[in-house]
Design brief:
heterodimer; A: alpha+beta; VC0802-like; Alpha-Beta Plaits; six-stranded antiparallel β-sheet; 5 helices; 6 strands; globular; B: alpha/beta; Rossmann fold; nine-stranded mixed β-sheet; four-stranded antiparallel β-sheet
């Protein structure tokens, strides 16, 4: 039901992101999706990769501060209102979203995938399932 | 000039010896710590026959005071205490000092002598921009001004626009504050369209932080005044331990009250006049918290030559040339890296790598604490990290009583030399 996301603490310095992508490339780790949150001083890089455990270990070895989290990956229809439908479900249930980001699915050109982090994860999963939304498994997500 | 300002060397020595014997008996009888020091050495106060006999005693320092926190070093009952002050300790607990009625009289006297030594008189209007409160700067200058009979305006620190307004309206003639604040005030005056050179100010009595000859020239030319260095520390009495005269060549120590020694910080052997060493002071007349051989940790040199400029015979110390410990003075406030360490330990349970970076932006000192983010405290949400940053900042500020900037940095950002991190980077050009 959940997929593994790795988060990396980064200072806002030129070339820092490139160092991380370099390490991942060198180790043949494929980035499936990513999002960057930042303030004026620091940022958090959030990644969905094909082998999260290995990626986390490699980044730790390179002395990055890394954290693994579980997030929800759900399919949405790639059309106007597709995201709105899901947000309406959450809003009615009083679930607030910590953060979210999207990527497009390769297999179906009419679907997008939303990565969502909420506090009430179990409740959010149930609501999505009841509404007939497809939640991606870890394996599905990493090999999209 | 006070009668004790230009005693002959023999007369000063006789007075100091008599007072040393008296204060030694006082602490021996009333402070358990000193009683046991003498007992352990097999000495009694009667062995204190000359000033040199003092050298047999160990140094007293902030650590001694911390071990006897809060009132363990008091030599009189609370009924005789009139005022209590505190300054930064090296960790957690502050350094506590107290004053009896007679201590307050001594403080008033030495501060009045200090102001007079710079040329101040009862006709002056003294704008006192040292902080009033637990910090001894504000009240010390205040008492001295009252004793001298000058008019004192108790501004305390900050509120620069109002400082400048009242300075102009009142016709202030003496400004007392930290040297960096006097530079900042001049800058603010200029940006408000005032020419500080045209103010009524004639003297600045500046201290509580290290400064240089270069900074003196800058201040004197910015305000068109004479700027004098004043030295003191709460453990001895507060401001008024030593001050410059118009010769601006060393600070006259009021040695009838404060007996100075300069020693090698490692061997504790006395160093000759003119050589650098650690300043050690014995309070000869204090009643509430008298200290024998208090280690100031300030590096100075000492001279006993009479002053060619003002004729005072009291010994002179040089400007503070450094510290024997890692204490920083930020905007007049003593800051120890260990205080910041204690806060970080409290938040993270283990000590994260951190670094203190001190800069002087314009005239004011800024302090930034960089803390490496480890997995224990890393939140994957921005607000979690911002909350951490804020918590560290608030807790450090509440311990240090000054504003700091906290910056979260990546692991291994802070350079380590030989495996040990350099805790303090002082980029101030003083």
């Amino acid at each position: 039901m959940f997929v593994k996301q790795i988060s990396v603490f980064m200072e806002n310095r030129a070339g820092r992101l490139e160092e991380i992508t370099g390490i991942l490339a060198e180790n043949q780790i494929n980035i499936r999706a990513l999002a960057l949150a930042d303030t004026s001083d620091f940022g958090i890089l959030r990644l969905i990769v094909d082998s999260p455990d290995r990626a986390a270990a490699i980044l730790r070895k390179a002395e990055f501060t890394v954290r693994e989290n579980e997030v929800i990956a759900t399919e949405i229809e790639d059309r106007p209102g597709g995201l709105h439908d899901i947000l309406t479900l959450f809003s009615k249930a009083g679930i607030s979203i910590e953060y979210m980001y999207a990527f497009l699915e390769r297999k179906h050109d009419d679907r997008a995938v939303m990565i969502i982090r909420v506090e009430a994860a179990a409740k959010a999963v149930k609501i999505l399932q009841d509404a007939g939304k497809h939640l991606l498994t870890a394996a599905e997500t990493y090999t999209l | 000039m006070h009668k004790n300002d230009n005693l002959s060397p023999d007369a000063l020595r006789a007075l100091q010896t008599e007072r040393l014997q008296k204060v030694t008996r006082h602490v021996y009888e009333n402070v358990r710590y000193y009683g046991s020091v003498f007992d352990k050495l097999g000495m009694t106060p009667e062995d204190m026959k000359s000033l040199e006999d003092l050298r047999a005693l160990p140094l007293t320092d902030k650590e001694t005071l911390r071990l006897h926190y809060p009132f363990g070093m008091f030599a009189v009952p609370m009924a005789e205490i009139k005022e209590i002050h505190a300054s930064s300790g090296t960790t957690g607990k502050p350094t506590v000092v107290a004053y009896t009625e007679s201590d307050l009289r001594v403080w008033s006297e030495v501060m009045a002598r200090s102001i007079a030594c710079t040329g101040g008189t009862r006709d002056d209007i003294i704008q006192n921009a040292y902080g009033y409160g637990l910090f001894t700067g504000g009240l010390g200058v205040h008492y001295g001004a009252l004793e001298l009979g000058a008019a004192v305006v108790p501004m305390s620190s900050g509120g620069t626009q109002r400082q400048l307004q009242l300075m102009q309206d009142f016709g202030t003639t003496i400004l007392t504050c930290t040297p960096s604040y006097s530079v900042y005030m001049a800058e603010q005056a200029r940006s408000a369209g005032m020419d500080p050179r045209h103010s009524t100010l004639r003297i600045g009595i500046l201290g509580a932080e290290p400064w240089s000859e270069g900074m003196r020239r800058e201040i004197e030319s910015a305000w068109d005044i004479k700027a004098y260095d004043i030295y003191g520390l709460s453990e001895i009495i507060g401001p008024g331990v030593a001050v410059e005269c118009p010769g601006q060549d060393g600070l006259h120590v009021w040695a009838d009250h404060f007996l100075p020694e300069v020693i090698d910080p490692d061997t504790h052997e006395p160093v000759p006049d003119g050589s650098d060493g650690m300043l050690v002071i014995t309070t000869l007349t204090k009643r509430a918290t008298p200290f024998l051989r208090y280690a100031t940790k300030d590096i100075v040199s000492l001279t006993h030559a009479p002053c060619p400029a003002c004729g005072r015979t009291s010994p002179r110390i040089s400007r503070i040339k450094g510290r024997t410990d890692d204490m920083l003075i930020i905007r007049g406030i003593n800051v120890f890296p260990s205080q910041i360490e204690t806060v970080l330990m409290g938040i993270e349970e283990t000590l994260p790598h951190y670094q203190i970076i001190v800069t002087r932006e314009g005239a004011l000192d800024e302090i930034e604490v960089q803390v490496e983010v480890n997995e224990k405290v890393f939140s994957d949400e921005i607000r979690g990290l911002e909350a951490l940053e804020k918590r560290i900042r608030r807790e450090i500020e509440s311990v240090l009583s000054i504003a700091v900037r906290v910056k979260l940095v990546e692991p291994k950002t802070i350079t380590r030399s030989e495996g040990k991190a350099r805790r303090v980077i002082d980029n101030r050009k003083i």
